[in-house]
Design goal:
Length: about 150
């Protein structure tokens, strides 16, 4: 009987030691995870700033006719992707999509002026691309707004 008691005490002690070790490991994992999440948020915010600068530079290059509309569209899409990645609420997502739509509307307007007067940069393919991208931005915004109505 004394042997059983001794074994029971040893098993309990080992169980407590294991639980304590696991608890410490989980605490370290939680700290490691928190540090990674913090770093991720920093990187996401940094990417928004970089994407804004890249988009502004691409806009200037587009107006100087040194890059194509596709280059500008790509930079604009990367910017909205970056803004959506940091959004934590539906309202923030909608705000990001509204800004994206505004950029695409401005681009479409500029291309249409060129299209209407028949100048370089206003070819039918450019105008159709600008329309398609504006429509895509408007669709994404409308879908985001619909999600908040459910």
């Amino acid at each position: 009987m004394q042997v059983r008691g001794f074994i029971l005490v040893v098993v309990c002690a080992l169980s407590l030691a294991a639980a304590s070790t696991l608890s410490g490991a989980n605490g370290q994992e939680d700290q490691g995870k928190a540090a990674l999440e913090k770093r991720l948020q920093e990187l996401l915010k940094e990417r928004v700033k970089t994407a804004e600068r890249a988009r502004d530079a691409m806009q200037a290059s587009f107006e100087a006719e040194t890059v194509t509309l596709i280059n500008l569209v790509d930079a604009t899409n990367k910017l909205v992707e970056a803004r959506l990645a940091v959004a934590t609420t539906p309202a923030q997502e909608i705000d990001a999509l509204e800004k994206h739509l505004e950029l695409m509307q401005n681009t479409e307007r500029k291309i249409k002026v060129r299209y209407d007067i028949g100048t370089r940069g206003g070819e039918a393919k450019e105008y159709a691309t600008a329309q398609r991208e504006r429509q895509s931005a408007e669709i994404a915004l409308t879908q985001a707004r619909l999600k908040t109505k459910r």
